[in-house]
Amino acid sequence: MRIFFIAFICTTLLGVACSDRKRQFSEEIKVLQSKAIQLPSQGLVMRKGKVLSNFDISNRALKLVVYADSVGCTACAINHIDSWSSFIDYAEQFNEQLRFYFIFSPVKRELQSTELMISNTMFDYPILLDTLNEFEKLNPHLPKNRVLHTFLLDENNNVILVGNPLHNKKIKEMFYRIVEDRLGKPE
Fold first, then answer.
1. Contact status, residue 44 vs residue 127, Cβ threshold 8 Å
2. Digit-coded pLDDT (tens) for 23-75
3. Could you report how far apart the first and last alpha carbons of the chain are, in Å?
């Protein structure tokens, strides 16, 4: 009888803890969606290992933001950046109406090694190194939870989807559905 009581208490506590985490996660998403996201206008932009002198942050119909802050693992994000290639190929079918914004905010002491890592990837898409931490300053409502640092923005920079389509099949399906609902089928 005592074992059943202990098992019941443990199950109840686990259920409450999971419920609290889900509620907190939902609240963080609501806060993220409460204000439009502002994209940084400064920073070091690199493509295929070379520094770009200008970077177009004009309004597109849709923008997928992939953000790695200094607290997270910028090196991990760079090491896996090639995983986005199929999504970028898909986006190119929409004539610049779907754009990706890879924004990394490395700490200053890691800036040089971060630049070197990006150069070594030869990734053929712009990457913004937010050396002034402008993205976080412009968006104080950005959650600390790194799971919520990938999101899809509409033409007004409002968050319409939160989550990484590389890591979640449902998010991936929702990403494709939203893009095609708003932009039509790819050409």
1. no
2. 775 787 787 777 888 888 777 777 777 777 766 666 668 999 998 876 566 66
3. 66
